Amino acid sequence: MEVRSKALFEEAKRYIPGGVNSPVRAFGAVGRTPRFIVSARGDRIVDVDGNEMIDYVCSWGPGILGHAHLRVIEKVREACGRGLSFGAPTENEVVLARMIAQMIPSMEVSRLVSSGTEAVMSVVRAARGYTGRDKIIKFKGCYHGHSDGLLVKAGSGALTTSVPDSAGVPADYTKNTLVALYNDRESVEALFRADPEGIAAVVIEPVAANMGVVPPQPGFLEFLREITERYGALLIFDEVITGFRLALGGAQEYYRVTPDLTALGKIVGGGMPIGAYGGRREIMEMVSPIGPVYQAGTLSGNPVATAAGIETLRILQEDPGIYKRLEDKAEKIACAVRETAGDTVCVNRAGSLLGIFFTSRKVTDYESALSSDTARYAAWFSHLLDRGIYVAPSQFEALFLSDAHTDEDIENTCRVMRAFF
Ligand code: HOZ
Q1: Nearest-angstrom CA–CA distance, 261 and 250
Q2: Is the pTM for the entire model greater than 0.90?
Q3: Cα 357 to chain centroid, rounded
C-alpha cells in the first residue's frame, strides 16, 4: 500500500524539484513511487503507510550498526541538550580527529566538513595546492559528489538519469579533470605520459560503488600507488562509501594500499551530516589557517554530528568481529542470487557491499556495468519492495548490510530473491 506516499510525493513535486532532495530517491529508474519514511530501527525501515521493510540501503552506508542504535542515540540526545551548533571549536572535534588517525593511520591530520561532496572537493583543492599542479585524473563511473569539477563521467544519480555530465557546469571548470577507465592501467599510463608534470592527483573510489559495486582488480590500486609516486602526483582515495565499512581502516586497510589523502563521508558521523578529509601532515598543513588552501564552514565539526560519529566509531572499535559478520551476511545473499540466477546475473561483492547486475557479462568497469538490463533490475526491485525488502532504487548503487540484519531477515531476503529468478 502506498496511498500516503503517493499523496506526499504529489505534494512534494509542487515545492521540491522532482519531489525529492536527491535524485535517486525519486524512484525514477524503477518506475515506482518513493516511500516516504517515518522511522527506522535495527534493520527495519517504516514508511508513512505503515509498510515495514528490511532495509539494504542503510542511508547509503552509514547505517552499519543498524538504525537508531541506542548508544548512538543517547549520545546525540546528550549533545542536543548542550546546543546544536556553535561555530567554534569543541573537544569532540579533537576526539574524532584522533580516532580517525588511529583507525586510518594515513589520515595523520584531518579536517571535518559537512558532507562527502565537500570532503572530496576540498581534498582535491589541497592536492592541487600542495603539488602546484592543476589536473586531476578520475575514473569513468566513479562518483565523487556533485561539485563542479568532479561531475564528469560520474556514477550514481548522474548515471541513473543518463546524464553523466551536468548542465550548469561551465566547460572551463572541468577542463582539468581527465578521465581514465576503472581497472584499466593503460588509460592511466596514457594520461600521465601525455602530461607528466601536470597531474596533481588521481582520485578514485577504491571500490567503485556508484556504478553498482565494482571492486578493483588485483594489483590495480597498487599500480595507482606506484604510478602516482613515479610522476610526483598524489593518490586520493574517496572512501565516502568504503571508509569504516570494509574494515576499521577502510579500503586502504582491506587492500593494503596507502593513499596520500583520503575523503570520508556520512559514516564518520554515524549517519549525521558530516565529512572529513585528511592525510600526511605536510600536505594537510597547506590548508587554511596555516596554509594557503582556503576551506571553511560553520557546520564543520558540528557538535551533534561528532557525538554520533565518535560513538559509532567507538562501537566499531570495541567489536572488530563485526566485519566478519557483515561479510558472512553479504556472502549469504550473494550465494543465494548466484545459485538461483546462474550466469544471468553478475554478483559483485566487496566486504559487505553488494552489486547485483542483470547481465551475463563480468562487470569490471563502467562499460560492462552499463550492459546491465535496467528494466530487469526495476522488475527485481518491485518484486522485493512488494515483499517488504528495500534495496537501492537504481542498478547503479550498492546494497549495504548492517550488524542489525538478523539471520532470520537474511534468510527471508534470500528466499524472496530466489523466488524472482
Ligand atoms: N546517489 C546517492 C548515493 N550514491 C544517494 C544519496 C541520497 O539520495 O541520499
Answers
A1: 13
A2: yes
A3: 18
